[in-house]
Amino acid sequence: MIKATRVKIVYFNYLYDLYGASIGSTIKGVKLMEALQHCGHEVKIYWRKDQPGNNGVANGKAPSRQLLKKHFDRFLHEPNQLFSNLRYVREENQILHAEKPDLIISRLDVYMLSAVLLAKRLNLPLVLEVDSPEVYEFRKFSTRYWRLPFLLETIEAYNIRQADACITVSQKLAEFFHKPGFSDGQMHVISNGADLSKFNPEISGAEVRAKYGLENAVVIGFIGSFHFWHGIENLITLIQAALAQEARVKFLLVGDGGPMKPHMQKFVAENNLQNQVILTGHIPHDEVGRYIAAMDIVLAPYPPLEFFYYSPVKIYEYMACGKPVLSSRLGQIAEVVQDGVNGFISAPGDNADYTRKLARLIQDAELRTRVGREAYRTIAAQHTWQKKAEAWSLICEQAVRKHRRVV
Question: Which of 145, 259, 319, 390 is the most exposed place for a label (fewest CB within 10 A)?
Answer without folding.
Answer: 259
